[in-house]
Amino acid sequence: MDDRMVRVIGILIDSFIPLLKAGVMFTVPLTIISFILGLIVAFTVAIIRVTNFKPLNGIVKFYVWIVRGTPLLVQLFIIFYGLPSIGIILSALVSAIIGFTLSVGAYGSEIIRAAILSVPKGQWEAAHALGLSKSQTLLYIILPQAIKVAIPPIANSFISLVKDTSLAAAVTFSDLFQVAQQITARTYEPLWLYMEAAFIYLIFCSVLTMIQSKLEVRFMKSGYSHD
Which of 50, 72, 135, 156 is least enclosed by beta carbons within 10 angstroms? Predict the structure, then answer.
């Protein structure tokens, strides 16, 4: 084994804990916070669109169109680097949370809306015949069935968000990828360090994939059906 490989192995060993620590302390919390807030936005937007609430329907459609039609990286740059030009200065963390929340909200709203619309119209009609209001039908009849449909794609969105958080490095947020960039700048070993960072992301996503599989099995056994 030549001297360079010995040096590379030493760098990888020394950098693993700092990278893992950055992932656990910054990437994971950023992902969880953004995802929870994003789901709240997604659910609200989906309900507005499904119920066709006129005062806000056009606004939320425009929001979804803008977010889905522009790159997430550009959105982060506008929030962090662009807004200060009009006097709105946000920290890297807040900028990242806002950017990822808006992204999750837009894409998640389409998933939830599609899940709600996948429930047969007969369910609405039967509930109406039983004297339930539209809101009661949505809450007690439609949503329990829609959740079952929405769980797999929502879980996939969460896993994708874990990877997307690497974009937060572009707005100077010290997440896993930002730390990898900092170590690379000192060691001049981008290939190996970025591969190590990718490996840690892979570990996180593999764990989440296993959790997703268990959730899907649990909801499949929960008994909700369209019949």
Answer: 135
pTM: 0.88
For 175-199, what is the mean pLDDT?
Answer: 94
Are 93 and 112 contacting, i.e. CB atoms less than 8 angstroms apart?
no
Q: What is the pLDDT of residue 226?
A: 43
Q: Is the pLDDT of residue 223 over 60?
A: no
What pLDDT is recorded for position 1? Answer: 65
Cβ contact 219:37 at 8 Å: no
Contacts of 70 (CB under 8 A, 6+ apart): none
Residue 225: what pLDDT?
45
Helix boundaries (H) for 118-189: 121-129, 134-137, 143-164, 176-187
How far is it, in rounded angstroms, from Cα 95 to Cα 202?
25
* 201-215 per-residue burial string, b: 16 or more CB within 10 A, e: under 16: beebbeebeeebeee
The span from the CA of 9 to the CA of 15, in Å, is 10
- What token pair was written down for 15? 């950098």
Give 118: exposed, middle or buried? Use CB within 10 Å, 0-12, 13-18, 19+.
middle
Domains and CATH numbers, the chain: 3-220 (1.10.3720.10)
